[in-house]
Design goal:
The chain contains 3 helices and 4 strands. Helix 1 crosses helix 3.
Length: about 80
Amino acid sequence: MIEIKDVKVVGEGCDKCDALFEATETALKELGCDVKPEKITDLVEMVKMGIMSVPALVVNGKVLHKGSPIKADKVKKLIEKMK
């Protein structure tokens, strides 16, 4: 089982990015994870991470989803696949 250490929601701070951030917070709570997601809005940091399509969900350094907001149940499924 993989330990979730680092969760980032990457985006420009738009409504879609905020929706993904909220869905991620909800999913982490439902999974019983104590990790708090971090918002990354710096364009330079996004490019360094190789993310050109936002919003994006990054867990433990791995991009799990990018390009659109998703609901909490989908975030949970993506995180559970890592475990």
